[in-house]
Amino acid sequence: MGVSDNYKVLPTTKVGYDRASELKAFDDTKDGVKGLADAGVTKIPGIFHHPNSHDQYDSGSTQLTVPLIDLGGVGEDPAIRKVVVERIREASETWGFFQVVNHGIALSVLEEMKSGVHRFYEQDSEVKRELYTRDPSRRLVYNTNFDLFISSAADWRDTFYCFMGMAPNPPKPEGLPSVCRHILLEYSKQVRKLGNVLFELLSEALQLDPSHLNDIGCNEGLSFACHCYPACPEPELTLGATKHTDNSFVTVILQDHIGGLQLLHENKWVDVSPVPGALGVNIGDLLQIITNDKFKSVEHRVVANRVGPRVSVASIFSTGLQPSSKLYGPIKDLVSEDNPPKYRETTVHDYVTYSLARGFHGSSLPHFRITNF
């Protein structure tokens, strides 16, 4: 039985339209958005309609280019490192995002990671349904929209993720999908190495000791989210991901050639155009908190596309939902009488729990901001 057989698309304008029932009917199929696309729907269900979602800001500016930083030589040449650190500082303060090349992860590993995500989503529906759940404490979760039942409109996106993390307590290999198990482990190992380098460069950009951010545990946790954005028959009516910020210290983003990721910069949506071999580096909320607003956690979204499926992998530096009593607040060396702390201290677990409970509704930072700022 296909999705089109056991799930009827109800128009939002129909008298007596019951959104809750339609959400449940869709979720109960456990086939996700890809199931709808594979069934050949020509009209997207009403639960995915985003009223006026594309009219809030100027869209897809071609006049602005996201910073692209070459990391080649940063470990060997002090002069190159000085230039790179300055570029990272500027990008983190003004954009909250930059792309990196010559980052040390082989192109073959990046390509195999994307292929592994495709293999996961191309599995038989019966196999994927075994993993479909809304329990975030499960080691591996596959579903459509973690906030499906609390959002005002669903996003045209499926995800499989490991919020309990690949580090510091990695899952047993047999607990990962067999079709992408090896590359998930290898890619996570490579991204952790890159994360150590990035946190050193970010520390230097803050004029701190190079080891500072690693020493306080910014690199301790790593989880992943592997997204699939199927081709959409009516992309103008929906989004692949609603505007939000990341509840991480840093998120490293691998995207394919299709594109769709946009950043909100100077009240304009700017396309993050795919660059072969590049990885995106997204400043997260937790880094904005500990830098006392010096580095910015950027709002971003993903637009839907008639071409697909688009895949991306978000590698999330955070201990996420793992229990922790460690408190994070503005770094003491970055505050002063003239620049007092702007955020109250929080654990990573509490911040992530609050963020997930809100869903994709902009930023969670205001809730942790000291009220006189």
From TrEMBL:
Q: Which SUPFAM superfamilies match?
A: Clavaminate synthase-like
Residue ranges of domain Fe2OG dioxygenase in the record: 218-323
GO MF terms held by the record: dioxygenase activity; metal ion binding
Q: What's the cofactor?
A: Fe cation
Q: Which UniProt keywords apply?
A: Iron, Metal-binding, Oxidoreductase
Q: Which domain of life is it from?
A: Eukaryota
The cross-references to InterPro entries, in alphabetical order and at most eight, read: DIOX_N, IPNS-like_FE2OG_OXY, IPNS-like_sf, Oxoglu/Fe-dep_dioxygenase_dom
Keyword Metal-binding listed? The answer is yes
Q: What is this protein called?
A: Fe2OG dioxygenase domain-containing protein
Taxonomic source organism: Psophocarpus tetragonolobus (Winged bean)
